[in-house]
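G., before I forget:
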Amino acid sequence: MNLSRLPCLMFVLLTLVVFRSAPAAGIDDLSLEALMDMEVTSASKKAQALSDAPAAIFVISRDDIRRAGVRSIPEALRLVPGMHVGRIDSNKWAVASRGFNGRFANKLLVMVDGRTVYTPVFSGVYWESLTPMLEDIERIEVIRGPGAALWGANAVNGIINIITRHAADTQGGLVVFGGGSYQKTFGSARYGAELAEGVYGRLYATGFRRGDFDLPDGREGQDDWDAAQSGFRVDAQRGPRDSLTLQGDIGRQHIHQHLSRAVYAPPYLDEFIDSADGRNANLLARWRHTLSPSSEFRLQIYWDQYLRDEALLRQFVSTLDIDMQHSFTLGRRQELIWGLGARRVRDDLSGDGARATPPARVSWLYSAFAQDEILLRPDHLWLTLGVKLEHSDYTGIEVQPTARLMWAWNEQHRFWASVSRAVRTPSRVERTVSFLNVVIPPNSEFNKTPLPLGVLVRGSDDFVSEELIAWELGYRFLARGGFSLDATLFYNDYHHLRANRIGRTALVAGGLQQQLPFTNARSGSTWGAEAAAVWQGGSWWRLDLAWSLLKTRIDTSAEDDVNPQVEYSPEHQLSLRLALDLDRDKRLDLWLRHVGEARALSAISLETVPLDAYTTLDARFAWRLDEHLELSLVARDLFGGGIVEYVQESFTRPEEVPASYYAELRWDF
Amino acid sequence: MAAGLLACLLLAGSALGERLEENTLKAAMAVNIARFTEWPTLDDGVFRLCVYDPGGELLAAFRDLLPKQIHRRDLAVAPIRRTLELGGCQLLFIHDPERVASARLLTAVEGRPVLSIGDTPGFARGAGGIVNLVRQGRKLRFNVNLARARAAGLRISSRLLKLARIVGARR
């Protein structure tokens, strides 16, 4: 930077600070005409501390997604304190909150507009098939910890709800396209219109092509991929009391992946490049009806289907879900909400890498919940009591209660506390699927026999739900002058956690087979702290901090528990984001992230792999060329080139996340 | 040197400009609209301005604005989440981009002298509200449903109506 411009910059900064320090003065005295003449700048104030929900909630806004320069959902989730996102390869992520991470992490409930997107096959999410049009997302709401009783199955360590924009808010056209080093090309187009009085609709299409990562030995990962998705949303208002939403999407993914299959012949590992195919479709209808000022009814029905065809496994899963809820007030102090839901899942699993018995299956899940929010002292003290009953074919009825207290001392300081029980019901794999994980060479450290030893991980009829009792404490502070803090402490007590024990040994074609059935042999606890702080120093700069600490302790009751007892999520994480509005048309964002060391399980290497701590930086510069056109340049993982962020449990090799850049042009009309 | 100083001033000027952050502008406009509205009766003491905004950003803007008085009454900004808390509201600002609460809140104040202001498209038409703040390019405009305001017993000054777009049934 030219030094002679420094005094000028100082002057500009000073002017801004001086004018900012008295923002309210004057605005209130402006006439309506003067206000109508003002230009609107986008809403940038956002403080997590403003929320009065008695839970560890964090909201990623539309503006956050845009300014962070991310092009996928898991990358956006890195903004959330206490959420660990590890990139496995070009098309795979490990995402978890409050510990227990892995590609097949299983304790999150993930939804798009109220539609569940985790797969019942392993209770986790194929993040690579979640490719909505990012520009049409209103916000991503993340709740760490067990869901209040309202939320459904699998809401154990967190809930991620991706909420797309109301069709009335996406009127007109939008075209986004760009490309760069890793993001080869990407593009989105959307058009929205008012179809009739009070009926709004939009159509969109989005897609991308991404390059590959490298293996640590320098070989190309050959894991490039592409995806495309298209869909619509219609929102209709029929009188003030009824509103109807109809939406649907179809998508497909072509994924190349570097796979390793266990075989009974030297070198006992067959490495190859797989070309996987994913297809998904869904349709959702939701009706809201206001019965009276104090009572509302909501009915939602959706159908969701996906097909994932890859070497080792071909999955087809079709879900039909119906859900109703009714809220009403009781007296002057209580607000009640109750609901019923039913879900039918039909699946069909085949492939030479896994054996499902039976290969096709239909299962039902029923749920009922009730929650009472009681105003103990208006404006100051709220108590929420809730319970959810859930019936699954595998484990029968599960009871999940919660109690939450919110205390607003004054407008600046708020406290909340909660205790909840949550369960994770068994997945299809944990009950009925077996797969050959690895073949250990003969006469080696882990196999002293002269025959190759195949390790068969096997679902077990005895496997029951994992249980959690969670204790949480929260504090929110809203200072005058633009500083806010949202802090949470938690203690999670787990029982019946999953492990594998030594099962039968058999002689099979090619060698020996050691079965490792799933068992609920473990218990453990995690505790930690999370903090999100925002310092809005002026109308033109803002600093966002996210910090988390996580401690894990795992015990096992089985002597033949074979899994290593390690932490799969880092103890420390820090994210620091600086957002600058350089002038009317130029914005600069810098995002520094530190992720502490952790370990990952890797069946291929027969042990856990250490994951080094790393620090990386993203930068985005956006320039508004005119009212409708914006050009942005994004650089990601600037110090991070060549880091192994995470390693998948089975079937793939570690890969390095490269530094990357892209340019994007955005045009709205 | 002079040119440098000029450039400097221009830069500072462009950074400030005649611009306002969206929430601040919405809050300022809502307060102004209330000043041009007459209520059939007003309680003594405070003017209760209720805000539904679960995100809290608009609420913060109202608080930052710190207007002293409306209709010679001290302004009290009250956050609203439930219909239970609506008692005594003279003005109800609804910021509900997900449309999860508008219907219930508006049904609750229907026909009562409560000035409902919202910022979602269609708020003053099918949704049942009275004043709708709408973005038009980079400026903020507003629509008024006059018939509904009259049904609620509110009188909106002609000076305000000149600046507004009238929507809904005409009389």
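The domain at 47-172+293-618+636-654 of chain A is CATH 2.40.170 (Maltoporin; Chain A). The longest helix of chain A spans residues 6-21.

More on Monday.
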